[in-house]
Amino acid sequence: MKVTLDDVAQKAGVSRATVDRVLNERGNVKQSTAERVYRAVFNTNYFIGPLAERDGNIIYKFDFVFPILKTGYFDSFTKEIEKSQLAFSRLNSRVQSHMVDGLEPEILAEKLIEVGTDTDGIAFVALDHPIVREAVDTLSKEGVGLVSLVSDLSRSSRLAYVGLDNRAAGRTAALLMGRFLSDKEAGSIALFPGRPSYRGHEEREAGFKSMIRERFPRFKVIDALSPHFDNDVSFEEACRMLDTKTDLVSIYNTAGATDGIAKALIERGKDGDVVFIAHELSELTRRYLINNTIDVIINQDIRHEVFSAIELLVRHKKRESVELSVRQPRVEIYLSENVY
């Protein structure tokens, strides 16, 4: 069904005339309102044709780099990018996704250098490792804009980070966990950590542990073996902990492989008994929320992150400031009653 200007106006919460002024650059519109309109353009996939004539026939080429994981989590990003191709034309942008095998820093660095030979900018899921930082710095010196996505890296010349405040996400999970366990006098919480070089998972873990220490010290956090994004491994480890930790009252999974943990809870008859909080809403985790195997999902807005990354890369190519244009996604909380 064709998307109209009225659809964009409704999505942005403004009048049709305001949308027309923004898209045709007639001015007299606040920056915050204009940003809402552009976001609505992306969200509705409204196509008004490229602006090549206005921008001197410039077409930008941007690339996303994602790891291939057994959980398939980043497939949702590639699907979102594919669905948004018409919307990207609003910013004169052609966007392509690339997948790399796993989360090895050497492979990621090599892919960044390869993609960087023919691109105007790259958004990538970062690994906080010296070889990755070196690749980022090398490309930055050559004029390529780089945006870290979902997880950040330290001490590099990337333009910006787009993703959750992962420490805040971990603290939020701990606060909810403590509230869910208000009737428990004590007990153990199993924490499933992520990959050490994946900074986002480390920050979630640190935030979670700090909140438990501050507000709920009667609970002991026990680290599980890292699932390394493998559902078979997480299933075995969850079963082991459920069988051996008689005082286990809850599980927090900072990373992927949520399916394995959920299946272990069901097999051991602990679903609905042991509180389980995990990350990322998908069709799979949605089903586990509805049947009460998972109590809470902490989520991030994929569409928002893709849009923001492209916007930053466009600003970089236009030599505009990117510092004030980063709008980080909020921590989203899903329960069985508000999931859709």
Can you walk through the features of this model?
Mean pLDDT is about 90; it is low at about 50-55. The protein is about 45% helix and about 15% strand. Strand 3 (about 120-125), helix 7 (about 130-140) and strand 4 form a beta-alpha-beta unit. It is globular and about 65 Å long. The longest helix has 17 residues, at about 200-215. It has about 350 residues and is α/β, with parallel strands linked by helices. The chain folds into three domains: about 5-45, no CATH class; about 60-165 and about 300-330, Rossmann fold; about 165-300, Rossmann fold (3-Layer(aba) Sandwich), CATH 3.40.50. Helix 1 (about 5-10) crosses helix 2 (about 15-25) and helix 10 (about 230-245) crosses helix 11 (about 260-265). The chain is built from 13 helices and eleven strands.
